[in-house]
Amino acid sequence: MTIDRVVFAVAGSFILISLLLAHYHSELWLWFTAFVGANLLQSAFTGFCPLAIILKKLGIKSGCAF
Protein backbone atom coordinates (compact mmCIF):
# COMPACT_ATOMS: atom_id res chain seq x y z
CA MET A 1 0.00 0.00 0.00
CA THR A 2 1.40 3.39 -0.96
CA ILE A 3 1.38 6.60 1.06
CA ASP A 4 -1.36 8.08 -1.13
CA ARG A 5 -3.69 5.15 -0.52
CA VAL A 6 -3.03 5.19 3.23
CA VAL A 7 -3.76 8.94 3.38
CA PHE A 8 -7.04 8.44 1.51
CA ALA A 9 -7.99 5.52 3.76
CA VAL A 10 -7.22 7.42 6.97
CA ALA A 11 -9.01 10.58 5.80
CA GLY A 12 -12.08 8.62 4.74
CA SER A 13 -12.11 6.72 8.02
CA PHE A 14 -11.79 9.92 10.06
CA ILE A 15 -14.66 11.52 8.15
CA LEU A 16 -16.95 8.52 8.63
CA ILE A 17 -16.04 8.16 12.31
CA SER A 18 -16.60 11.85 13.00
CA LEU A 19 -19.97 11.73 11.22
CA LEU A 20 -21.02 8.79 13.39
CA LEU A 21 -19.84 10.62 16.51
CA ALA A 22 -21.75 13.74 15.43
CA HIS A 23 -24.90 11.71 14.92
CA TYR A 24 -24.75 9.70 18.14
CA HIS A 25 -22.81 11.94 20.54
CA SER A 26 -22.48 15.65 19.72
CA GLU A 27 -22.79 17.82 16.63
CA LEU A 28 -19.51 19.48 17.59
CA TRP A 29 -17.73 16.50 15.99
CA LEU A 30 -18.62 18.05 12.62
CA TRP A 31 -15.77 20.49 13.23
CA PHE A 32 -13.40 17.53 12.99
CA THR A 33 -15.01 16.55 9.70
CA ALA A 34 -14.48 20.10 8.44
CA PHE A 35 -10.84 20.02 9.58
CA VAL A 36 -10.14 16.81 7.66
CA GLY A 37 -11.84 18.19 4.56
CA ALA A 38 -9.93 21.47 4.77
CA ASN A 39 -6.66 19.59 5.18
CA LEU A 40 -7.41 17.49 2.09
CA LEU A 41 -8.27 20.63 0.12
CA GLN A 42 -5.13 22.53 1.09
CA SER A 43 -2.92 19.51 0.39
CA ALA A 44 -4.37 19.30 -3.12
CA PHE A 45 -3.14 22.83 -3.82
CA THR A 46 0.08 22.95 -1.81
CA GLY A 47 1.25 19.33 -1.81
CA PHE A 48 1.86 19.56 1.96
CA CYS A 49 0.29 16.73 3.94
CA PRO A 50 1.43 16.13 7.54
CA LEU A 51 0.21 12.50 7.52
CA ALA A 52 2.22 11.75 4.37
CA ILE A 53 5.37 13.08 6.07
CA ILE A 54 4.74 10.87 9.10
CA LEU A 55 4.07 7.81 6.94
CA LYS A 56 7.24 8.42 4.93
CA LYS A 57 9.29 8.53 8.15
CA LEU A 58 7.64 5.26 9.21
CA GLY A 59 8.90 3.62 6.02
CA ILE A 60 5.70 3.33 4.00
CA LYS A 61 6.59 3.25 0.31
CA SER A 62 5.67 6.19 -1.87
CA GLY A 63 5.06 6.53 -5.57
CA CYS A 64 3.32 4.43 -8.13
CA ALA A 65 3.05 0.68 -7.58
CA PHE A 66 3.18 -0.13 -11.32
UniProtKB/TrEMBL annotation:
Q: Which residues form the Inner membrane protein YgaP-like transmembrane domain?
A: 2-56
- Tell me which InterPro entries the record gives: YgaP-like_TM (IPR021309)
Q: Which residues cross the membrane?
A: 7-24, 30-55
Asked if the record carries the keyword DNA repair, the reply is no
Q: Keywords for this entry?
A: Membrane, Transmembrane, Transmembrane helix
- Highest taxon of the lineage: Bacteria
Pfam families listed in its UniProt record = YgaP-like_TM (PF11127)
Known Gene3D superfamilies for this protein?
A: 6.10.140.1340
What is this protein called in UniProt? DUF2892 domain-containing protein
* Species of the source: Candidatus Methylobacter oryzae
